[in-house]
UniProtKB/TrEMBL annotation:
Entry's family note: Belongs to the 'GDSL' lipolytic enzyme family.
Superkingdom assignment: Eukaryota
Annotated signal peptide: 1-33
Pfam families: Lipase_GDSL
Organism of derivation: Ensete ventricosum
Entry keyword set: Glycoprotein, Hydrolase, Signal
Name listed for the protein in its UniProt record: GDSL esterase/lipase LIP-4
Any one GO molecular function term: hydrolase activity, acting on ester bonds
Length: 371
């Protein structure tokens, strides 16, 4: 069994190994979108929004535990069920996004998902960095328009590309890799501008090729992940009142501050473009800090893993590996495997996004349908 993605192995550093919950919200989020069935979404990112790119691109078979809640089978997602991007697609009344590299059964009539677990922004020239994902999109667009011109149906036309939502959720692995390289907090933060630059390049490239509506997620509280908390530490003074690593979270906050400034800058510079910055960090940190109010039993312990309390995470026996254990169906954990959130948590995160309260400007996710 291979494990990969944002757990302990990351594509941007070349993986060496591979890497139940009942939903707290309704099976699907309320659909109030004005898009009908014509919404188009192109997604770029890492395992937080990968709907099967890792499995399609590298032939990795995920364990049967993945997807057990909703799909009842491994779905290519590093989660027990749906991801935030899945719930956002539901809110648009459109199908879940097919991975760009999926050769069989893919449906690209409503967009495509270029996200691959483990992806970083840097180095920019390695699979499947953000820059590589954008190049894959450009090829996808060129080929789609060629086929449409030849009379092909059920593909996205020029108008579809022009009115599409371009979602970006990346950066977590860049920070995690820097800490894994035993860099100091100061050294990690010094890397942030180069990561922001790659995101800037990606948005500008997509804009130059017709994109005008961008939905950008900041990164979550890295220091609250069981994977990071399970690392050896001398004492607990490095933890905040909710048990999260202060330095890791501060690095995420610095990344987010620079990403927010970038989105503000691009909004003023890119004519007729809208860049929506969404504060995922605040949503997830609130979920952890007030987990009992949301119906969760534990905030910092993985459902699937090894080692038991307090974190149930062992770098050598990750979720799906021989000897790992999965919490019973119906258990209420925020963390699925120590790195990725469980479906029940993802549902709440998505519902918060859809309120528009955490986005700047405060636009609905279906804004493109009425713009």
């Amino acid at each position: 069994m291979v494990r990969a993605g944002g757990r302990s192995a990351r594509l941007c550093s070349i993986p060496t190994g591979l890497l139940l919950l009942l939903p707290l919200l309704p099976a699907t989020l309320p659909v109030e979108a004005a898009c009908g069935s014509g919404a188009v979404v192109f997604n770029f990112g890492d395992s937080n929004s990968d709907t099967g790119g890792l499995t399609a691109g590298l032939g990795i078979v995920l364990p049967q535990e993945e997807g057990r809640v909703f799909f009842r089978r491994s779905s290519g997602r590093l989660c027990d069920g749906r991801l935030v991007i899945d719930f956002l697609c539901e809110s648009l009344n459109t199908s879940y996004l097919s991975p760009y590299m999926e050769p069989l059964g893919a449906d690209f009539s409503n967009g495509a998902n270029f996200a691959v677990a483990g992806s970083c922004t840097r180095p920019a020239d390695v699979p499947f960095s953000l820059a590589v994902q954008v190049r894959q999109f450009l090829r996808f667009k060129l080929r789609s328009l060629e086929l449409v011109a030849q009379g092909a149906e059920d593909l996205i036309d020029a108008e579809g590309f022009r009115n599409a939502i371009y979602t970006i959720d990346i950066g977590q692995n860049d920070l995690a890799d820097a800490f894994s390289a035993n860099l100091s907090y100061v050294q990690v933060v010094q890397r942030v501008p180069s990561v922001i630059h790659e995101i800037k390049q990606a948005i500008e490239n997509l804009y130059d090729n017709g994109g005008k509506i961008f939905w950008v997620h900041n990164t979550g509280p890295l220091g609250c992940l069981p994977q990071k908390l399970a690392l050896p530490r001398k004492h607990d003074s490095s933890l905040d009142p909710y048990g999260c690593l202060i330095s890791f979270n501060n690095a995420a906050k610095e990344f987010n501050a620079q990403l927010s400034a970038l989105c503000d800058k691009l909004n003023s510079e890119l004519k007729n473009a809208t860049i929506v910055y969404t504060d995922i960090y605040s949503i997830k940190y609130d979920l952890i800090a007030n987990h009992t109010a949301y119906g969760f039993e534990t905030a910092l312990m993985a459902c699937c893993g090894y080692g038991g309390p307090p974190y149930n995470f062992n770098q050598s026996i990750e979720c799906g590996a021989f000897g790992s254990r999965v919490c019973p169906l119906g258990s209420k954990h925020i963390s699925w495997d120590g790195v990725h959130y469980a479906e029940a948590a993802n549902a709440i995160v998505a519902s918060k996004i859809l309120t528009t309260k955490y986005s700047k400007p405060n636009l609905a996710f279906d804004y493109s349908c009425t713009a």
